[in-house]
Design a protein that fits this description.
By secondary structure, this protein is an alpha+beta fold. The chain has a single domain, classed as Thiol Ester Dehydrase, Chain A (Roll), CATH 3.10.129.10. It contains 3 helices and 5 strands, in the order E-H-H-E-E-E-E-H. It has a 5-stranded antiparallel beta sheet. Strand 4 and strand 5 form a beta hairpin. The longest helix is centred in the N-terminal third of the chain and has 16 residues. About 20% of the residues are buried.
Length: about 130
Amino acid sequence: MTHVFDLRVYYEDTDLAGIVYYANYLKFIERARSEWVREIGVDQVALKTDKGIVFAVRRVEADYIAPAKFDDSLQVETVVQALTAARITLTQDVKRGNEILFKSVVTLVCLGENGRPLRLPADIRQLMQR
């Protein structure tokens, strides 16, 4: 299943050349992941409060292909590539129409309050596998 998150490039997202500053792509894909998790029915605040569990980025592979510019309408496509008891691997592409501007592979882990890895609860794993 592909989750699509729409966004607009604002002036604050760009650099002196008028293109999206490279680090902002990481913000774009973070927003898309947050919306994906919310849309599948996972309340991250409740997860932290009730079970002491948070998600953390373990690894990001990023490939900058073409620039996005001020006022562009973009889409972030998120797809689950792999899901284990403790890790989630996603691909996240930023597109302008059918043109891919940025590609990433993001590995997330589940952590407890002490910062140690935890197993992803089975009910959440099931929601992510849909």
